[in-house]
Amino acid sequence: LRLKGFNGRWKPCRVGDLGIFYGGLSGKRKADFGGGSARYITFLNVLENSIIDIQKLERVRVLEGETQNAVEKDDLFFNTSSETPEEVGMCSVLTEHLENTYLNSFCFGFRLTDAQMDPLFLSYYFNSQEGRKIMGVLAQGATRYNLSKTYFSDAIITVPGKDEQIAIATILADMEDEIRQLHTKLVKYQSMKSGMMSELLTGRIRLTGKEDA
């Protein structure tokens, strides 16, 4: 299925030629988490969102002079392991600029160097059925599955030109936003229903109508 106005050929690309990999936080102890002035992107934030939810960052202590990789706008993040191959290499993108923010140690970052790649498109791509096929092949393990950056770097993906990437990503982002709004309404109505059931079934609120004979 192609969007109207686009008919150019999709081209194969080697993942490793599109950007550079970097690691998450290193050398941290349990006591370093939950406090401090720095923030970090959690494992679940990457696993559950195509776009990082910046309202769900957590605190970590990072001392001045520490060698840590700060995240940047448009970086992609991948989880390195999971109990199932289907959840290995789930992808999320950071769409906003953040200061003094880092990545959890169970994920790795990918910073694009190819200006012809749209990061939001790639996030949706790697979370799609096509992306899941790639990760399923790359996942290694028996009881727990891991993603090798070396093998992932050699993976080949087929993508359209950047204008078409942006158009596709925009449509998917709009759909995701609409789903989020509908979910918010659903939660609201479920809460209203629960409250009304409590009032009606205990007799605290009585319906208007004929009294019993």
List keywords for this structure.
22% strand; alpha+beta; 3-stranded mixed beta sheet; globular; 213 residues; 4-stranded antiparallel beta sheet; 5 helices
Q: Which helices and strands appear, and what pairs or packs with what?
A:
Blueprint: E1 11-14, E2 19-23, E3 33-41, H1 43-48, E4 58-60, E5 76-79, E6 81-82, E7 91-93, E8 101-103, E9 107-112, H2 119-127, H3 129-138, E10 140-141, E11 145-146, H4 149-153, E12 156-159, H5 162-201
Parallel strand pairs: 3-8
Antiparallel strand pairs: 1-12, 2-9, 3-4, 5-7, 5-9, 6-11, 10-11
Task: Calculate Rg over CA atoms.
Answer: 22 Å
Strand order of the largest sheet: 2-9-5-7
Please outline the major beta sheet.
Answer: 4 strands, antiparallel
Shape: globular
Quaternary structure state of the chains depicted: single chain
Uncertain runs are: none
H/E series: EEEHEEEEEEHHEEHEH
Q: How much of the residues is beta strand, in percent?
A: 15-25%
What structural class do the secondary elements suggest?
alpha+beta
Rounded to the nearest angstrom, the distance between the terminal CA atoms is: 66 Å
Range of helix content? 25-40%
Question: What's the tally of helices?
Answer: 5
* Integer average pLDDT: 93
